[in-house]
Amino acid sequence: MVWWLANNPGEVAKCVDLLGTLTRLSAAANDLPVEAIEDGRADDNGHAQLMLSE
Predict the structure, then answer these.
(1) C-alpha Rg value of the chain to the nearest Å
(2) Angle made by CA atoms 43, 49, 53, in degrees to the nearest 5
(3) For the whole model, what pTM was predicted?
(4) 34-39: which pairs have CB atoms within 8 A and are 24 or more residues apart?
(5) Which of 26, 36, 37, 41 could disulfide-pair with 48, CB 3.0 to 4.6 Å?
(6) Measured between alpha carbons, how far is 34 from 6 in angstroms, rounded to an integer?
(7) DSSP 8-state secondary structure symbol assigned to residue 34
(8) Cβ distance 53 to 31 under 8 Å?
(9) pLDDT tens profile 27-47
């Protein structure tokens, strides 16, 4: 999300619309389980949450 905003300044609303996609891309880029994000773990707004391992 930070990368996208840095490359698209002033487009916060568009970033909010892309949160699910950006979360999945981040998970894939960081070798995190994308399935954990796609299997319904979402916040109250329906956005996927990125869960980092320690």
Answers:
(1) 11
(2) 140
(3) 0.55
(4) none
(5) 37
(6) 24
(7) H
(8) no
(9) 888 777 776 656 555 454 545
